Amino acid sequence: MANPAKRPLFRWPYRFLLVMATGILTFTCSQKNDHSLAAASIDGETISLSELDATIQSQLYESLFGVYYMRRIALEELLAEKLLAKEAKARGLTKEQLVAEETRIQNTEQGLQNFIKEKRIEEGIPDKQNPLRLIPLTSPEGKTAVMEAYQKDILIKLVNTLKTKYKAESFLVAPTPPRLNVSRLHGYARGSDAPLVEVWVVSDFTCSECQKHFNLFQGLFERYKSTVKFHFTPLSIKPTLASVVCECAGAEGKFWEMHDLIFTKKPQDTADFQRLAQQIDLDEKRLAECLDNSGSIQDKIAKNIRELDALTINITPSVIIDGRLYLGEFSFEKISDHLDELLEKKSKKNL
What we know:
- The chain is built from 14 helices and nine strands.
- The longest helix has 35 residues, at 57-91.
- β1 (38-42) and β2 form a beta hairpin.
- By secondary structure, it is α+β, with helices and mostly antiparallel strands.
- The strands form three sheets. The chain has a five-stranded mixed β-sheet, with helices on both faces. A two-stranded antiparallel ribbon has the order 1-2.
- The protein has helices at residues 14-30, 49-55, 57-91, 95-106, 109-118, 140-165, 208-212, 214-224, 241-251, 255-265, 270-279, 284-292, 295-310, 332-350, and strands at 38-42, 45-48, 125-127, 130-135, 188-191, 197-203, 228-234, 318-321, 324-325.
């Protein structure tokens, strides 16, 4: 894959990212948006700062979003601390006593059942490490997990109530990534035929980070397939056997079956792929012919890699949501929150 060792900037160490992005912010502000300033010259012909920034637009937004994201997390924690302290003082309690009292009042069997229904986890609570695995609520592990989630929810709702009571406002605004033209990308889609939002997953079958996040993307598909269309497009340094086999399977209408098997079984050679093909009843003769004459398929995949490079996407996995690169935390909870927000906006707009 392209730069498999790289990791999204939001996972970089806090101090490094803060110094780097603060430098970008300071430099940008100090120049007062004077786009005529030159970064270099060749025989008297200048290369402007705006031209330079255009070539690293995505990286700049990643850096700025990383700072915003860390500020937002820190702000939510700080707001919660101050709001709880303010309310505790008003009631003549310590903050710890306030939290304990509210938890005791809200922590009822009826409240727990309402929480389970509200979060739609009657069949089990998702495992944080594997969103596709549901932990039965009747199991000891499930009881512990759902109670922890419920008590956290009580605290979040308390803080939200206090935000209204004390007129708390947040003025942080997330930088908006540039819109990407994904119309030239080649991929396979599944999900809603009338989607409110479209998601592109840019991934590599052999990338360890991509394999690690396979269950995350599967879980998102299962949750949002009625309202979101999910696309998959491969990115690697050059066409791989896995991506070629998937194209051959796609020609028989079984791309997603092969896609799932490759990520779960991790085949290494042609013999492994042939065994996978048997599991999904691919025509062996057609598969062999496809692999023997794969030049045009490799050209198609290579062209797609160039298209992704033109969009400055060179890290896997990457996710494009609603035409913009997703720069947040790669977790089921955070991506779900982002999708829920977009879906709510689109739904209101369509009313």
